[in-house]
Amino acid sequence: MKAIIPAAGQGTRLYPQTHTKPKGMVRLAGKPILGHILQNIAETNVEEVVVVVGGTMKDQIIEYSRSAFSERFAFDFVEQENAKGLGHSIYQAESVARGDELLIALGDMLFENKFNAFLDAHDELPESDGSIGVKEVSEPNHYGVVEMNEDNAVSRLVEKPDDPPSNFAISGVYIIENSNALFDALGNLVNNDIRGAGNEFQLTDALQMMVEQGCNLRTFEVEDWYDCGRPETLLEANRVLLERTKTDGDEQLRGSVIIPPIDAGENITVKGSVIGPYVSIDNGATIEQSIVANSIVGQNAVLQGVNISESIVGSNTDVHGEANNLNVGDNSSIYF
């Protein structure tokens, strides 16, 4: 089995953080979003990973993946030169993934479940050409939606419908047995310029085409997931991941009040401050005479005399004086 991670998106909803880094390299709870995804996949039997990259900052994705996970995975990096949708992104992997069983994991989604649980759930289903992780939601028109027949086989899929046929939203994890049929469908969309929601080539539309051509797709249930492409859900994912860790209270945190859970990087300085709960501090950061809660503090950032919560502070940023709620990009200076 191969995994495909589409990680070429520009991440406009995370501006200003993604002005200087790809969305997958935004850090929370000790590692980049991509790192959490790869770590989760590393617990499965997947040995090969295809990462779809794009844009001027794609080298950050490539360098991080190789440096952090080259001993675990064999990597292929394929480029999506123009952002034309998720289906178009997956289609770029055809040359290295056609014919393989695939685990498709979106590059900005973190899950309560482990990928091992998804693979086990797939294996327990009747024989199929693939399966899709779904969750019942209250506003399905914001998502790709799945309609199922009486034996729970997928009968219809539609992306962000005005009148949803069900409340079952596609969660962003797919297990494809028949990748030949998938790439045939994606090729049909792209080569015939058949665009869907957002004027993009949608993976949902390719899966619907598979169903229309007689492929048997099924579903498995996914618990909560976190779309890390938005600041509020990025902070929520940070909280959930930190709940699973323990603070060691090492020397660099002494002399301040620490309210776990937090994640503290290397070579940080914390003096006369109250830190936590749910704070992720990247390497080299300095926090003095401050109160920081429910926040992500970037590499080499400096916070002095601030009181912040529900905030994202980028790398190499200086923030001095009173504050409350911030979303500050890299290499910024703010004085109150």
From TrEMBL:
Molecular function GO terms recorded: nucleotidyltransferase activity
Record keyword Transferase present: yes
Native source species: Haloferax massiliensis
Span of domain Nucleotidyl transferase: 2-242
A UniProt-annotated Pfam family: NTP_transferase
Cross-referenced InterPro entries: NTP_transferase_dom, Nucleotide-diphossugar_trans
Protein name as catalogued: UTP--glucose-1-phosphate uridylyltransferase
Annotated keywords: Nucleotidyltransferase, Transferase
Transmembrane segments: none
